[in-house]
Amino acid sequence: MAKTVGFAVVGLGVGHAHVKGALEAEGCKLVALCDIRPQTLDRILEKHPGAASAKFYTDYTEMLKNPEIDVVSICTPSGMHSDMVIEALRAGKHVLCEKPMDITVDKILAIEEVRKETGLKVGGVFQNRRNAVMEPTKKAVEEGRLGEIYTGLFRVNWYRSDEYFLHNDGWRGTWALDGGGSLMNQGVHTVDLMQWLLGEVKSVRSIMRIVNHKIETEDFTNSIITFKSGAVVNLISTTSAYPGYGTDIQLTGTDGSIHIDGDRLTVWRIKGDNMKEEEAEMLQKYGAAGVVPASDHTVVRGHSFHVQDIVDAVRFDREPMIGPVEATKAVRIINAVYESARTGKEVVFD
Ligand SMILES: NC(=O)c1ccc[n+]([C@@H]2O[C@H](COP(=O)([O-])OP(=O)(O)OC[C@H]3O[C@@H](n4cnc5c(N)ncnc54)[C@H](O)[C@@H]3O)[C@@H](O)[C@H]2O)c1
User: Fold this and answer.
1) Range of the domain at 186
2) Model confidence pLDDT, tens digit, residues 8-23
3) 3-state secondary structure of 85
4) Same domain membership, residue 118 and residue 12
5) The pTM is what?
6) CATH number of the CATH domain containing 69
7) Which residues, 6+ apart, have CB-to-CB distance to 344 below 8 Å?
């Protein structure tokens, strides 16, 4: 029988969703928690009393000495990720790392080098790929059912308060630790879905602004993304859309269209004899499914999938769903958006 995997979580903000995942995952035992702020433990224990048996540390390096730990889940500010992932790998631990895996492609590729050298597992988090409606959407795109997808819209239309950016010494909205604003932090999931659905990017043309926050980074980007397939798509991100809306994904093809709001399907119209019946059936299944609004940052979903994925990767010696190279794709596009906005020039990919 496969062994039980000892699991640790560092960074107890969104880390609470990883704690929940570890307590529920099959073949997993939560053995350690770490945060430089000891008060974060109270909130964890209030939400997840089962975490009481895990050993709590305020020093990450100290925690990594614990031989009971097989996997470390890294949930600290984004710009710290690669250093902490590499330290864990060097200590012989497998890693699950929150999105973005780090804020530059080079930093993520440095993880990939150590992953290859050590032979340990490294998984990233892009839980929106697991939203129910994404499976049939990806399948319809892959089967070419929409014909030529020549345009589309990917829009993250969210709101974040000033307090949100002041939280925990104000790391959010800084270039050094957040790597960007509405696109790198909030929009990275949608950029990942965009490239996952539409493939390789050819070029990026963008503008960005700080609309309504006292932060270093943008809170609004607007880009034209051209894909190698020929599709030309609008990518928009903001955290200033008071009081906060959802994430729109619209795929427009010569044989059909799919529109998604949050993870709720709103349009599924694909050429065929039973177009109307198919749409009715799809809307029934994936329409107003009572999903939570994506603009509520206190709600996190889908992390349990990634916790089980890394646990199974370790137990059954397979690769996790999102490896470092896969995790670079969205980060490369986002940094191209920033470069184009700064220079006023189109960024052309290799
Ligand atoms: N997948 C998602 O949907 C999702 C949602 C929210 C956040 N995130 C990602 O998770 C990461 C954390 O975001 P957050 O919103 O939870 O931030 P947060 O500020 O609420 O929590 C981060 C925690 O890390 C702790 N920390 C900082 N440095 C540390 C260190 N050296 N050692 C131990 N603990 C340390 C802080 O004290 C804090 O409690 C970011 O990379 C963010 O992009 C992902």
Assistant:
1) 129-295+332-348
2) 999 999 999 999 999 9
3) helix
4) yes
5) 0.96
6) 3.40.50.720
7) none
pLDDT tens profile 231-289: 999 999 999 999 999 999 999 999 999 999 987 999 999 999 999 999 999 999 999 75
For residues 3 and 107, give the distance between their C-alpha atoms in angstroms, rounded to a whole number: 32
Ligand 1 centroid–CA 274 distance in Å is 47
How many Å lie between the centroid of ligand 1 and the Cα of residue 203? 31
For residues 291 and 115, the model is more confident at: 115
CA of 115 to the centre of ligand 1 (A): 22
The values of phi and psi at residue 31, to 5°, are -115, -20
Q: In what order do the strands lie in the sheet with 149-157?
A: 264-270, 256-261, 247-253, 149-157, 232-238, 220-227, 201-209, 347-348
Nearest C-alpha to atom 36 of ligand 1 is from which residue?
11
Could you tell me if 119 and 135 lie in one domain?
no
- What amino acid is encoded at 112 in this protein? E
Q: 176-223 pLDDT, tens per residue? A: 999 999 999 999 999 999 999 999 999 999 999 999 999 999 999 999
Please, is 124 exposed, middle or buried when counting C-beta atoms within 10 Å of its C-beta (0-12, 13-18, 19+)? buried
Q: Are residues 271 and 310 in the same domain?
A: no
For tokens 């895996």, the residue is: 101
Taking alpha carbons only, the member of 292, 193, 183, 291 closest to residue 240 is 183
Q: Are residues 39 and 100 located together in one domain of the fold?
A: yes
Which single residue is written with the structure tokens 């960007």?
Answer: 180
- Positive or negative: CA dihedral 125, 131, 133, 136: positive
Ligand 1 lined by 124 (C-beta under 6 Å): no
Q: Give backbone dihedrals phi and psi of 158, rounded to 5 degrees, phi first.
A: -110, 175
Q: Provide the CATH number for the domain around residue 161.
A: 3.30.360.10
Residue nearest to atom 17 of ligand 1 (CA): 13
Q: How far apart are the first and last CA of the chain?
A: 46
- Joined tokens for residue 269: 């119209």
97 Cα–ligand 1 center, Å: 11
What is the C-alpha separation between 287 and 283, in angstroms, rounded?
4
Structure tokens at 238: 């903001």
